[in-house]
Structure formats: C-alpha cells, structure tokens
Amino acid sequence: MDKSNTNSFRDYFKGLCMKIARNTEVDGFFWDEPHYAYPKSYASMTGGAGDDWACRCPECMKKFEAYYGYEMPKFMNDDVKQFRWREALETLEIVSKALKEYNPKLEITCCVHATLNSYYVTELRGYDNWEMVAACPYFDVFSTTIINWSLPESFFQEITERTVAMAKKYGKQSERWLMGYNKRPDDFKQIDKVVDLYESLGVDRLATWTYRGGYGTSVAAKDSIELWDNIGRNYMRVLKKDE
Predict the structure, then answer these.
(1) Can you tell me whether residue 1 is helix, strand or coil?
(2) HSE of 69 in the Cβ direction (CA atoms, 13 Å)?
(3) Tell me: the pLDDT tens digits for 24-79?
(4) Quick one: DSSP state of residue 120?
(5) CA distance linking residue 64 with residue 97, whole number of Å
(6) Which of 28, 154, 223, 233 is the most exposed place for a label (fewest CB within 10 A)?
C-alpha cells in the first residue's frame, strides 16, 4: 500500500487542492481512476489480482490492528481488502469535504475502474467497491472508466447498467467514457451504437480521452483524427436531441 493513507500525505494533498480552489476559477475536481500502486507482475487490467501482496509498513500495521484487533497479515485476506477500500476512500473524502465546505458549487467526480468478471478484473487497488465510492456524500458524479472497443457489446451494456443504477441509488449523476486513444473500433459505426446504448440506458454524461485521438503522441490510435471526428460527430448528434 502506498503512503496515501498517512496524515502527512493527506495534509499535503488537501493543501494542494485547496490552493487550486482558492486561486483559480476551476469548476470542480476529477478523481481519475485513483488507486494504490500495485506491481504489474501481480495484476493487470486483463490479468488476475494477486492475493499475496499487501503493504505492512508501520503506519498500515498500526491502523489495521486498531481496526481489527490483530496484527496485519502478510497475505491478502478479506480484512485487508476492506482496510484498503476504507483507507483509500477516506483520503478522497477528507479532501472532497474540505473543497465542498470552501465552495459547495465545486463539482466532484470520482471515476473508478470498470471491473467485471474476467475482462477488467477487480484488482484490489482500493476503489473496486463501487457501493462505497458512490455512497460518498461529497461526490457529485459517479463515473466508470473506458472500455476497449474490442470487448463485446454485452460488456458495455452490463457496465453501463451497473454504473447508472449505482449513481441513481445514491443521487449522483452517471458518467460513461468513450475510448479515444490507442485503438480505434474496426467500424466507426460502433461509436454510434455505443453512444445510443449509453443514451438508452440513461447515462447523464459522456466523456472521452484523449484529445484528438492522441494524435502525435505515444498513445495515438490508428486514424486518430478520424476517430476524434467520429466521436465529435456523436457528441453533436446527442446534443442536438436536447435542443
């Protein structure tokens, strides 16, 4: 576990965010796939989560024993998972609460990994428990991250249904993403189908990463400008329906 659950880090992070809020005209804050550092040898977005890795630094061990009444184990168990989820979320709750108290109009979004079964697996990175994240009273938007175009339509549908349901349960706006980097769909008409799916399932907000399909960067998609234009066309198509 990295040091985001220490008081020193939390004070630093809160101070930085408050400085931004006070000195700029920012509309809000976006917590983009926050997670603990986790060695790629133990997990990846298409692999399995390791069950034999957990930080046992003095800070983690002290907090863990205070919660559970026994020494933090060397191997991952259910208590360690719960501990990671709680400590990870508490960091963002502390900062988000301070921001809202300073300016209630600041919009705060938390975007978590779109985890499901064997495609994008739960990696125990700290924010896999959607229920805990969506329930946070200081978040305005519950967002789930990008899905690769190569995955089946049923995966897009199930992730989106769960995202919308979770957001509605806790009175948040829902947000879903379009992949605008690295890979393009085999057929650009797939973008239209996914956008229609998101709209039909009641998604409140649509987002895309990255600008211009990553053109000129190491994450550029094939036909990146054409990809960007097709995504933009769909934004315009949806916006016109609201006019």
Answers:
(1) coil
(2) 0
(3) 999 999 999 887 765 555 444 444 555 545 678 888 899 999 999 999 988 878 89
(4) B
(5) 24
(6) 154
Number of Cβ atoms within 10 Å of the Cβ of 71: 10
Start-end of H helices in 103-223: 130-134, 153-169, 189-200
CB under 8 A, 24+ apart: contacts of 220-224: 220/181, 220/182, 221/180, 221/181, 221/182, 221/183, 221/184, 222/183, 222/184, 223/184, 224/181, 224/184
Cα–Cα distance for residue pair 210/221, rounded to 1 Å:
10
What is the chain's percent helix, strand, coil content, to nearest 5?
Answer: 45, 10, 40
The Cα 187–Cα 180 span in angstroms is: 14
Classify residue 116 by its DSSP letter: B
Each residue's pLDDT tens digit, 70-123: 999 888 788 988 888 888 899 999 999 999 999 999 999 999 988 764 445 555
CA distance 229 to 199: 19
**Pairwise CA distance, residues 201 & 111, whole Å:** 18
What one-character-per-residue DSSP string does 190-204 give? HHHHHHHHHHHTT--
Cα–Cα distance for residue pair 135/139, rounded to 1 Å: 8
Residue 208 — φ and ψ, nearest 5°? -145, 145
Q: Which amino acid is at 238?
A: V
